[in-house]
User: Which sequence fits this backbone?
């Protein structure tokens, strides 16, 4: 089970909200809303996505890395940490 | 009319695709997908959102700023540029 | 002359401060400072760099784009705006 | 000792290089270099800073989190992971 499984309902709720915000962007474009207002809403959606990502990352390190360390499996720790760092790099650069 | 109105259909299509990607994230979480794979998909959605934002920003400067400059309205140029810079700041920090 | 030339002293002062902050990072690493405190200082340097970039971008659009528009040179406006948007894309993704 | 201590020389070298790049920015501004070229150099410095940060973060998780987990100290794991996630949040938003 992934580290986030206890909070699945919360992530599902937040992602449904983000989905609604993206539909809101579609309406804004359809209604010729001023560009800056659309850009402001895009930043809000990006921030919401980032906070979902940070939550998943936190739980990944908290569970997967810690479990591998407790199991005394340094190779697995290395693999999981390398994956997490690469995921952070993508987040920082997306 | 906003600077992007000529490309409304393209923006609508891209935003519908992003909406579908967010629904994809919901399925991934619901199916207990490995955290790193969910994070990778979130970065993809963020990148897609950013490229929509960059397109809107480009057209905002290309039309709104240039029109105000051609109209010889420095106060309006200042206002629009300040808005665009603030929008970029939010993008960089979201 | 570039759009920022009136504010050269201010940019020079801010960049010297950032240079000092980077030397501060070197000292922190040399003195085995706790990783999280070094990361906090790196974020502060990144934010300072970003605000210099946003200032330069604002003045680029305010002067170069507006001047080309006033000069009735749509091809030059297109070129300068495309350059500015590409610069924003690099900022967002750096 | 922090997780990065084995690589201190490498981090020192990279930070000295970044310091040199920031001095290069000062020269560009002093010589009235075209705004877009200065912005391009700022993005290069930001990327270099981010890769130093990602290295420190990787080693923080690899050592501090894994050590606390091996020591069977869940409270310490929680504290260190929360700190790391907050550091990532600052990186993503700087």
Assistant:
């Amino acid at each position: 089970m992934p580290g986030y499984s206890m909070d699945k309902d919360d992530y599902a709720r937040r992602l449904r909200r983000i989905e609604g915000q993206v539909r809101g962007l579609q309406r804004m474009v359809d209604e010729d809303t001023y560009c800056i207002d659309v850009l402001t809403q895009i930043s809000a959606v990006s921030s919401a996505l980032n906070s979902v990502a940070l939550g998943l990352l936190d739980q990944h390190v908290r569970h997967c890395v810690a479990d591998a360390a407790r199991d005394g499996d340094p190779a697995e720790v290395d693999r999981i940490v390398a994956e997490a760092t690469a995921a952070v790099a993508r987040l920082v650069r997306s």
Summary: Residues 22 and 53 of chain D are 17 Å apart (CA to CA). Residues 5-93 of chain D form a domain with the Methane Monooxygenase Hydroxylase; Chain G, domain 1 fold (CATH 1.20.58.1000). The mean pLDDT of chain D is 93. Chain D has three helices and no strands.
